[in-house]
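To whoever is on call:

I kicked off a structure prediction for a single chain this morning and the downstream step that reads the tokens threw a length-mismatch warning. I double-checked the sequence; it's 484 residues and nothing unusual in it as far as I can see. Pasting both halves so you can look.
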Amino acid sequence: MKNTIFYLTIFLFFTSLSYAVEPVDKNYRESFSNEALKEDYYKLQMRTASFFDRQTSSVNGLIESYRGTSNFSYDLFSHSFVVGKNGVLDAQAFTYDQAVAALAYLLAGQNKKTEKILRICQREFLASKGDYIGLYNAYKTDVPRKRWGLTAGVDGNRVHLGPNMWVAMAALQYTAITGKTDFVPFVIDMLKWAENIKHYTLSDGQKGAASMGYGWQPPDWSKVYSTENVIDHYAVLKMIKKLYVTKPKDIKPYFEKAGYEIEDVDEELENIERWLVRLIYDKKKGTFNMGYNPNGVDKTDALDTVSWAINAITPERLKELNIDPFELMKFADYNYYVTDIVEKTEISGYDFTNQQGRRKNYRMIWFEGTCFHITTFQLMSRYAESTGNHELAEIYRQKAVSILTDVQKASEKINMVDKALPYTSKNPGEKQIFTTFANEWEIPRGKNGTWVASSSSTGWYLMAASAFNPFDFDSSVNYKIFDD
């Protein structure tokens, strides 16, 4: 009887705590959830926060991107597998995953943990890296912070636009949700940094989008332009502009102190739209290409160029730019929608690319990508409704529910601690290689063939279940900063 009372007390405590944590309008969120997920949502919040607590390095406070990776790595020079002492990716913290974790903590109502991640990133961003500043793509989590900063991880000294912008995005969501403006100067620092990265020059001499950045080569990253990274930059610019226009008394002083103007934001937004429309959007295919490099436009197809473009630019603005968001959605379904078997269960979701993009005879479900495409379905459902297309709005809504249900199913079947998700539906052996695209990004291998928990997939699962779009200040979110 005492045990029953104890567990009931704990349950009621966490239930009451969780019900107070509702950043996204409950009715809106639940319109995209099955009945089981509606009941388990608050448990999912707590499990996700618990997962990221486990992933937090006790050495330097960074969020580890994976857990349980194999000791084997593939050596490109000897074309053979070599074995190390520890899991190849176990002590690695990718910068993008710091942002995902920060956003997940926000959705779980654990704002202090979000703030801690952002403080670490802010300090590291300003740490000198020779001739430049910025956040490396990845950091080691088993090395304490030195006087000069954190230790670069598996990606070496690469400093790329996208991961830095994701941290800025998380900082702006923190600002809006909490109403605290502490990180606005940090975001302005990051935007000024991005402004000084080499930009593309169009054929008529007009300025386009920023390049990926710099660091360990090849290739020369100042000559590589990534649609995905550019869209991240666009989202941050648009969000800080909304803060500036809506709350000028709170935000304008930070601009003035930094010597930054709202005209700088507008100019960069125009640069990006010009680059996307004139160079990257492929009218024949009805989608965005992957980017541009010294060989010309990279015509590889990638899911995030659809999902993130819609979420960041918005369907309304895309339409104004003569880009049909409905056609983008059709392209994604035709090229990226796949089914795979996960623990003897058929699961549906979305791949990184199509058969041409991988040039191999296998497809897979990318759980991170599947979850962020769910948020695109959610947004497009509302947009279709606003245009009077009620039938398509319902189709998008049902698709969001269906795919989210399959992600939930995969989480249950794989059954890792805290119901974490792996990176993809493939579970490679220790000497087996699956790649995201043709020749890059091997899928993490687990020890003895076990599943590997992924921070990006697990964090995005909560965002999808919350119907939360991190690329914009969405009307479905309860933002304190916009309260009058």
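Update from on-call: the warning came from a stale cache, not from the record. Cleared it. Sanity check on the structure: The first helix runs from residue 2 to 19.
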